[in-house]
Amino acid sequence: GAVVSQHPSWVICKSGTSVKIECRSLDFQATTMFWYRQFPKQSLMLMATSNEGSKATYEQGVEKDKFLINHASLTLSTLTVTSAHPEDSSFYICSASVTGKETQYFGPGTRLLVL
Amino acid sequence: GNSVTQMEGPVTLSEEAFLTINCTYTATGYPSLFWYVQYPGEGLQLLLKATKADDKGSNKGFEATYRKETTSFHLEKGSVQVSDSAVYFCALSPYNNAGNMLTFGGGTRLMVKP
After folding, report:
1. In which band, very low, low, confident or very high, does the pLDDT at B96 lie, cut at 50, 70 and 90?
2. Best of B6, B7, B44 to disrupt the A interface by mutation (most A CBs within 10 Å)?
3. Residues whose CB is less than 8 angstroms from the CB of residue A51 and which lie 6 or more positions away in sequence, other chains included
4. What is the Cα–Cα distance from A16 to B63, expressed in whole angstroms?
5. Burial level of B28, CB count in 10 A (0-12/13-18/19+)?
6. Distance CA B16, CA B79 (A)
7. Taking a C-beta distance cutoff of 8 angstroms, is the pair B93, B34 a contact?
């Protein structure tokens, strides 16, 4: 149980285009989803926290207009990287949790390469 | 604020060697503590956790004991295998945190040689 999927697992796009990454909780209802960014050989950096049906809370320094997060249902959250640039290339990981439970379940990650 | 400090890697061991990865934390109250493992090219998987002082989390031969007096949660395994090669992250979640926020350490890369 507690499986989280991400799609796509790999994406290569041209500079200036937008990319949408999906995060789904497959066998449970996730009241909270988190989006992280991980640079090579570094730890995870929390980008934002989203609760179903409400606006995401972004961490300091994360541009909310560039990284659009939508948590439309209890099983789906999306991260859209708008007008992507090469510096946005990274490994994006989502996680999901249930209110009152401290454990987060992580997706397999999405590797984004912007040319 | 909350913080987690891990020993820097990489840690290189021979198969069947004993493993210790140190983790210390700073937090108010009584956080829950976690170890996550990340295999190459994959997301994080929960390895083990402990929610109160003196609890021992264990899984797949790994174990860690929540030591409040030393604010530590060191990861140990008696005999590592090549398949244990991965990056290990120590993390904490503050007590009564409705948002389930995790604070991660920097990660420790483990390389096990046959």
Report:
1. low
2. B44
3. A31, A32, A71
4. 47
5. exposed
6. 4
7. yes
What tokens appear for A14 in the block?
A: 């041209």
Q: Which residue has the tokens 């099983």?
A: A75
Asked whether the beta carbons of residue A44 and residue B106 sit closer than 8 angstroms, the reply is: no
Decide if A103 and B34 are in contact by the 8 Å CB cutoff.
Answer: yes
Task: Please report the DSSP string for B59-77 in residue order.
Answer: ETTEEEE-BTTTTB--EEE
- To which residue do tokens 């490994």 refer? A91
* Dist CA A75 CA A33 (whole Å): 9
Q: What is the mean pLDDT of residues A59-87?
A: 93
Q: Which two tokens stand for residue B37?
A: 């493992």
CA B76, CA B47: separation in Å to the nearest integer?
12
Interval A58-68 mean pLDDT: 93
Q: What is the pLDDT of residue A10?
A: 95
Contact A113, A9 (CB under 8 A): no
Of B72, B81, B75, B76, give the one whose Cα is nearest residue B35: B75
Residues A92-110: tens digit of each pLDDT: 999 998 876 767 889 999 9
> Which of B43, B49, B104 is opposite residue A43, by nearest beta carbon?
B104
Q: DSSP letters along A19-81, please?
A: EEEEEEESSS--SEEEEEEE-TTS-EEEEEEEETTSPPEEPTT--TTTEEEEEEETTEEEEEE
